[in-house]
Specification:
Length: 85
């Protein structure tokens, strides 16, 4: 099984370089990066869903402090405010 996984990884890795070589001739680098990123995100989302796991956990907003504090008004002391956060 380990050899089959290794061969599959080598094929996926090698074919991606072939697609890049062909894709650069037909579209610009920005479009190619967009297509690669979106297709990768979709593929990973499908794999996660097939495994039966949620795409986002129940506490995904509380893990990142910048998302947790989103929406609060913050005044900087340099601008005349006396509180931050």
């Amino acid at each position: 099984m380990a050899y089959a996984a290794f061969v599959a990884l080598a094929l996926i890795w090698g074919v991606s370089f072939l697609f890049i070589k062909v894709g650069v001739q037909d579209m610009g680098p920005t479009g190619l990066v967009l297509v690669r990123s979106v297709s990768g995100a979709v593929a990973l989302a499908v794999i996660v869903r097939v495994m039966g796991r949620p795409l986002f956990g129940p506490d995904w907003k509380t893990r990142n402090p910048s998302l947790r504090d989103h929406g609060r008004r913050q005044r900087a002391p340099a601008l005349g405010g006396d509180r931050v956060g």
